Amino acid sequence: NIDINTLLAKIYESFAKKKPTSDLRTNLIESLKVQLASKRYLLVLDDIWVEERPYWEEFRSCMLNVSSQNGSGILVTTRKLEIGTHDMHMDSCLLKGLSDDYCWDIFRERVFAAGASASPELVKIGRDIVEKCGGLPLLLNVIGGMLAHYNDTEMWLSIKNSNVWDLEEERDRVQKSLELSFDNLPNSIAKQCFIYCSIFKKNTVMEREELVQLWMALGLVQADEERNKEMEDVGNDIFQILVSNSLFQDVERDELYGHITH
């Protein structure tokens, strides 16, 4: 769980585009006042898991000290209905899963190359898998990214019949699907490179070139003489494999580099 001061610091950084000069709460509130006191704002806190009511009452008090402008609001997204205060419960909106047709569009774009035709058998299995995803786009992306590397019916059926669908909690299903994605990486080198990334803290932002250089320095990737590929090319291929399997988050693409949040 993220503490209140850290949350306030992150909010300040999102507005000011720089880190606060102090992590004391009074200073953080004063810094936020400079940014927000005369403005109306919409603050979005995404994928929150902190349940404790006192936590949210304390946070609300801090934000009221920052600005009491009418029209400002805080939007919290979460997968836990028990989160927050009574007022938060009263104003909550339970989102439904995406429609089957929309889910199929997401899955199809993830799995099949543009313009490529799929066998009727894979389409049928794919639609069954999509139905099991329960309208959750994250699951669709993870499972779809993994199956994009396989065209054999046996692999698709193994995912369709996996026990991941027996888990009741959405978070458990997502976690298990990520484990499946890791287990089904095409080679041990890709697995070792991903395991190496566990040394970084959550939300660490890295550039692809820097990460590939670290893999090379540690001897995790080697030149592929059979395919006439240098070490860096092999590392870039592994990076793309991990991206396509949804094991990296928030990938930003530009002409030269891939930026990731791990």
How is this structure best described in words?
The chain has 262 residues and is mainly alpha-helical. It has three domains: 4-91, no CATH class; 100-184, no CATH class; 188-245, no CATH class. The protein is built from twelve helices and five strands. It has helices spanning 4-16, 25-36, 53-66, 86-90, 100-111, 120-132, 137-147, 153-160, 170-183, 188-196, 208-217, 231-244, and strands spanning 42-48, 73-78, 205-207, 249-253, 258-261. The chain is globular, with a radius of gyration of 22 Å.
Largest β sheet strand count, sense and barrel closure: 3 strands, antiparallel
The helix/strand class is mainly alpha
Look at the structure and give the mean pLDDT: 85
Instruction: Give the proportion of residues in helices.
Output: 40-55%
Quick structural gist:
This protein is mainly α.
Architecture blueprint of SSEs:
Layout: H1 4-16, H2 25-36, E1 42-48, H3 53-66, E2 73-78, H4 86-90, H5 100-111, H6 120-132, H7 137-147, H8 153-160, H9 170-183, H10 188-196, E3 205-207, H11 208-217, H12 231-244, E4 249-253, E5 258-261
Parallel strand pairs: 1-2
Antiparallel strand pairs: 3-5, 4-5
